[in-house]
Design goal:
single chain, 372 residues, alpha/beta, nine-stranded mixed β-sheet, 9 strands, 43% helix, 11% strand
Length: 372
Amino acid sequence: MVLRNRNRMQKEKEANNESEQEAKMAAIELGHLKKFVLRIPSLYFCSIRLTAACTQSCMQCSIPAQSDGSFIDLQHFETILKKLKQHGSKRITLTGGEPAIHPQLEEIFRLLAKYEFTNTALLTNLYYPEELQDKVIDLVCKYEIGINTSYDGFAGIADKLRGATDVQKIVERGMLKINEARSKCVYSHRPTATAVISQLNMHQIPDVIQRIKALDWNLNIDVYRYSSDNHREQDKMKIKNKDDLLCLLPLIQQAQHLKTPLWYFEGWQKQKQKQCPYMISPTFGSKFFVHENGDIYTCLHESLGNLLHDEIKDIFASDQWKAAKAQFAQCPGCWNTCYTISSRALSYLHLGTIRQYLQKDKTLHRTAEVPQ
């Protein structure tokens, strides 16, 4: 009798917890609707920088120069996650610098799991010792974290672009280790490799596409641009002849597991229409970036506020946010995969893009065929 009562009480407790969770989720969704009507950002996409320190010194990146060697504090990280979750954030990307070198990475992942975001990803260059690669891969498998890395070229070109030695060898070692986990069905995600086309690596892009296909990874393609304080302006990387780039487009558009929507490439050729997510779709399309000290940014270089000290609703009622919106209105706009592809949902009604995603291979567990 006592055991029966305990079982009944346990079931009632579980039912109550489930009802409370459903009520919370309903409140968040209702909050999204209210934000949509009022054109308030939901922080749907949010990146959190764990550190500015990095294992590479990429030609186009200025973030490591901002580093003071610090990492985000674990308690501060949880404070940020709690506020983002309450506001309605869905997708969290951990960035750097190199986020994998955070000394409390498992605790970071554990907190992400605790707050149950819809999607979480680690933006990592995979350029670190084999022991750390093994640890990171074990953790992303355990906590089901998506992997995004960079693959810009081969041999000396990769080393030059990434400001390091043996980049291709070390990064591919990590990619192969991830594939091994996939082949054992302990990692369910198909990871993503991003190639940024520049004048320096343009001649290698066809082979880069084939290599990523052989590795059975998703592929993102972007073009070097100088558009924020996180980028270095490098004349050597700027595309000199647009026609050379246009010649690559048919090959890019036919690439296997291409994640970059096909409408993006057609639009890139014209770039007649400004595609700013902060202006067109502020609630669900705009992206925000939280630094390790809690400061929150858009694509602009001024902080909107600090998530450790400010409430999110107050940030979007502040003079800083009003000033940022005025800058968005005056900005001529940019065309890149960081912002453009989330700016307008109707763009995805593009027939070629619909076919692209319908044909996308959904088999995530098969063994990658990796050349030796």
